[in-house]
Amino acid sequence: MPFQMKYEIIPRYLPGPSKRRPMLPLARCRFMVAHDTGNPGATASANVSYFQRTSNDMSSSAHIFVDDNEILECIPFLTGPAEKAYHVVYNVTTDNARYGADANDAAGAVELCHGGRIRLTESYKRYVWVMAYACYRYGLNPSTDIAGHYMLDPARRSDPQQPLRQLGKTFSDFVRDVEEEYRASVIPEPQILISAEDANKMIRFLSASYFAVNDASAQAEFHRLANELRRISGQPAQ
Ligand SMILES: [Zn+2]
């Protein structure tokens, strides 16, 4: 089942191996962590540029930054083979209790950019969509497999509650929005109504008719009908 790619995810990878991007493979993505940058007014691009400039200064990072214009991936996660990002300290235990693993070893990290000139509702739409897409890509359940950073490290973190509050939303509202986006974006498999074999037999008749007429509009119609038969028999259009 394909997923509707409403937005582009732009890769802008940090240099690696570096402290922020050690280039270690993320063996398996078990859950997602929702963050916000805590840096009002800084765009996705500004955040990634800052990480690029400081790639060897410290080990903290995230996979994706989202603002009202762009979804930038600075550590491969959805645009390339997934690598680890360091976004939740190792010595907290909620991630282990809930998902059986440390976030840094088993989760994708998405940062919501907000504040200043960033249009929060637009940022939020992209944030919800990219979370839904990540759940789809890694076979996660949006209702149980998304944690807020504040849930994993309540003593030190509150993200992404502040921008959510600005939108009048709770974290549960956010999860519900992701569930809804997920449902709306998964494109169901075409229903197969006849076998490919039967369809191809009929297509051969249409093809004979196509070559028997000299009229372009009649030919276009035979072509359309052949593709309809391909569609309902689960074959690609030609
Ligand atoms: Zn965070």
UniProtKB/TrEMBL annotation:
Substrates-to-products reaction catalysed: Hydrolyzes the link between N-acetylmuramoyl residues and L-amino acid residues in certain cell-wall glycopeptides
InterPro entries for this protein: Amidase/PGRP_sf, Amidase_domain, NAMLAA_amidase_2
GO BP: cell wall organization; peptidoglycan catabolic process; peptidoglycan turnover
Record has Cell wall biogenesis/degradation as a keyword: yes
Cell wall biogenesis/degradation listed as a keyword: yes
Protein's name according to its UniProt entry: N-acetylmuramoyl-L-alanine amidase
EC number: 3.5.1.28
Gene Ontology molecular-function annotations: N-acetylmuramoyl-L-alanine amidase activity
Keyword annotations from UniProtKB, A to Z: Cell wall biogenesis/degradation, Hydrolase
Matches recorded under CDD domains: PGRP
